[in-house]
Amino acid sequence: MLKYIDMASNPTMDSNSLDRYVGKASIHGYAVLAIEGLDSYKVFNGVQLIPRISFKFNELGREVLMKRECIKILRSDSLEDLKITNAVKKVAHAIELGHELLRSMDRKALKKLVNAGKPVIINLRDVIRLINLNAPVLGLLLLLRYYERGRISLVVGSGAREEHELLHPITVCSFLVSLGLSEAKALSSVSINPLSVMRSAGYDILR
């Protein structure tokens, strides 16, 4: 049975908001949430909560290096800061792309991602916002083609900040299929692929 994982949760960290958020995730069938800013591993309402920390390529300092027992994500918001150095590759468990890259990413940028050999995370919140604005999503469509052909590993997270933004994983998969992904690839992006990121960070959580 597939276990659904959200690699990109960003809820408000006060206890009431977090409780509501995790409660909604539990109702939707998520087994694991990777939460930005969480201080330590927790289990609540049957959902495992994993800390994650995001950093830009020029923020790879002591705070990131010394952080233990968390998932470390390189965050790239534009073509200019999509810089994947050897130092970054040693630290980052995955690379997260911002909405500007989903608009404008080209084959040169995608070649960087392929050569980096790291799973790529996109946030559904960013995708929906671009589509609602009728903005071009050429970078996203190119990324999906690379993923469908097996050239990269893709993880689709919610990017949700409030519980009402957290969609059921089957809804997420249906949305991805509407953008051209096969059902198998869509399901992997919210289950198998994020699980491999978790395990690379030392969380063998679903055995």
Report on this structure.
By secondary structure, the protein is an alpha/beta fold. It has one domain (4-200): Metal-dependent hydrolases (TIM Barrel). Helix content is 42%, strand content 21%. The protein has 10 helices and 8 strands. Strands 1, 2, 3, 4, 5, 6, 7 and 8 form an 8-stranded mixed beta sheet that branches. Helix 8 packs across helix 9. 42% of the residues are buried. The mean pLDDT is 91.
Short note summarizing the structure:
The protein is of the alpha/beta class and 207 residues long. The chain is built from ten helices and eight strands.
What is the secondary structure topology, with strand pairs?
Elements: E1 4-9, H1 15-28, E2 30-36, E3 42-44, E4 47-55, H2 62-66, E5 71-76, H3 86-91, E6 94-97, H4 99-104, H5 107-116, E7 120-123, H6 124-132, H7 138-148, E8 154-157, H8 169-178, H9 183-189, H10 192-200
Parallel strand pairs: 1-2, 2-4, 4-5, 5-6, 6-7, 7-8
Antiparallel strand pairs: 3-4
Helix pairs in contact: 8-9
Helical region count?
10
Mean pLDDT: 91
Order of helices and strands: EHEEEHEHEHHEHHEHHH
CATH H-tier superfamily: Metal-dependent hydrolases
Helical/strand content category: alpha/beta
Can you tell me the residue ranges where pLDDT is under 50 for at least 5 consecutive residues?
Answer: none
Shape: globular
The proportion of residues in beta strands is 15-25%
* N-C termini distance: 12 Å
Quick tags:
207 residues, alpha/beta, TIM Barrel, 8-stranded mixed beta sheet, 10 helices, Pol/histidinol_Pase-like
